[in-house]
């Protein structure tokens, strides 16, 4: 018992002077002023909004530290199973508002700040987003952290501390420009742990020796060493004392500042170069979503992070002095996509090479420890690493991968004798030139559970990509855990007005921790006053967005128009091109109308936002087209307010918090069978927006929950996609006639030089229309027509909006995390008491 080992007088002194938490406005203000005057060395006379932000953040940080320490101590003493979420991306967004709401002191902070002359919204807006992610995958990890803490699970996140997060997007003359996102200056939310370091090895060679028992042992020698330094970020749960830890690794040269030997030998430049080389590993987030490019630095990042995290986890386990076979009872590790798959190999290496376990015993521990989540079926996103590259960088790991593969193929051969095709299909090694390591297969083989992120997606995995593995392992290894979002950030924080109205009707904020309670809202669907308030809140949120649009783009948009929003990474499979072609079609249609006809048109604002990977030319072309169409439409006097097109620059988490509550309609229109789940669809519906979408990803389950009458579905089904593509390939393709008119307009240089967009139109007309834009176009514009009609009936629209929100309880990440905990991790919550 660690507690008892400390003498009572010492404990008494600590207790007496132990830091305490502010509990009201006055105490908060005192802390705020103290931080501004001492920590920041500012005064009443030079305290700007930024200083007010820093002071507030520091005051809340103190609170979090106290609860964080308690949580970590309690979790260590209790020593029950922990879960480790390994993700190369954590798209956290801002932390202050979240911290205030989760500890329940936002009102005190608002009043305290107001006493000192600040508006809380302006103070919150000073914070730089923590943007260590690309899109859905990274944001999902952030929502998971929030739910794991809220549900009191002993859980850690492990990631990389990138010096540069996702780039900032600027639109210049209609083109995307990328600006580096240096975000680390004055970040109060991270704690450097300079004492927690791990040496990570690269390159070198493997030597075989015989030990005293005649057994062959392997040592990995020479090579280069880079040091991993831990930076910790506290993760507060909502309405609980549990404050978990997110540990991010930063790289630096192993001998500290410089290699002193080189330095003293007069080789100053090369000493500096080595240091910079080491620091490069955690320098920048790769800005591709759903695309893998096989760059060596990316593999270095992956190993650096996996090895540091595994060392840390194993070190913590070894302190408990348990037997190795208890490891899976103490540790669950979840792999967020294949990016951390090397962790499987690294654990096997530690157990065999360093701890001296036998292969089978070690492998049994490994497979019981890991779970793997797949997020995509897109072939270009599946990770493969070239064997020569891996041989050079991680020679021992490549050997182990070959051994893992050998033992695996031997068991397959026993089950399916003489099926050579099967063996080559499921081999971890693809026999190409060069040979490639298929990371998804390695992840499946090294895990006890594999899950997809929505029902359709998980089914597709089982019937296509991972079909052979279902035969080999049986169906039980494969499961589905449909994604969700945290209602704290995406309802309560993003939409305080709606959250307050719901709380008023339901008699409290309990729905924020049990989202199924939203179903009680259905009782009020026909309540006139309630509908009126609901509509009023939507208008307020649209006004907030309109104000934001005005201040960032200069355009005025009318909040009475239908706000039609598509915000997400720009990708051909997500089909922003379908949307902008639809907008052009609408523009041409309105231009052809008589004054009488125009009176019946429902005014629209088409809002786009999203980043294209810097090397993804087609995605950049789509952005360019959207911006050019906006230029033409927005200044066309024939059109006036009937149609506006807005591109919101630099879409990110904090902007999403303003955008999601303001939609009437949002678009989730990927080619059927291509979107793993989608999560913004959930955010929009939770905030009372309706959606237009394809039968893809979680749209299908959203439909099942909220009812077919409350969603606008269109387009071909996943089961028909292959057949259509096949037909296109053999020349059976006709451009949809409406789409042909759109293309004719583009080619007439209506939106600037048509040559700028020829790749985009050609991919459809000439190169097989892989994403079925033409096949779905008619259905898409017809369905938009139905949206217009529905929007004219305000009362019915409101009923759909309210009913949908009431039925969204399923999509909380609390439900998701409980499913992972029960069916994959086998971990129990641990409540933190005072
Ligand atoms: C997304 N994936 C899925 N990937 O596309 C989306 N990829 O359907 C799903 O809802 C979401 O994951 C959460 O499950 C991504 O966001 C990436 O960002 C990514 C990053 C690097 C490499 C590959």
Automatic annotation (TrEMBL):
Catalysed reaction, written as an equation: [(1->4)-alpha-D-glucosyl](n) + phosphate = [(1->4)-alpha-D-glucosyl](n-1) + alpha-D-glucose 1-phosphate
CDD domains: GT35_Glycogen_Phosphorylase
Keywords, alphabetical: Allosteric enzyme, Carbohydrate metabolism, Glycosyltransferase, Pyridoxal phosphate, Transferase
Superkingdom of origin organism: Eukaryota
A cellular component annotation (GO) from this entry: cytoplasm
GO MF term list: glycogen phosphorylase activity; pyridoxal phosphate binding
UniProt record, GO biological process: glycogen catabolic process
UniProt cofactor(s): pyridoxal 5'-phosphate
Residue(s) carrying N6-(pyridoxal phosphate)lysine: 683
EC number: 2.4.1.1
Gene3D superfamilies with a match to the protein in the record: Glycogen Phosphorylase B
Task of the protein: Allosteric enzyme that catalyzes the rate-limiting step in glycogen catabolism, the phosphorolytic cleavage of glycogen to produce glucose-1-phosphate, and plays a central role in maintaining cellular and organismal glucose homeostasis.
Similarity comment: family membership: Belongs to the glycogen phosphorylase family.
NCBIfam families: P_ylase
Name of this protein: Alpha-1,4 glucan phosphorylase
Organism for this UniProt entry: Penicillium cinerascens
Upper taxonomic lineage: Eukaryota, Fungi, Dikarya, Ascomycota, Pezizomycotina
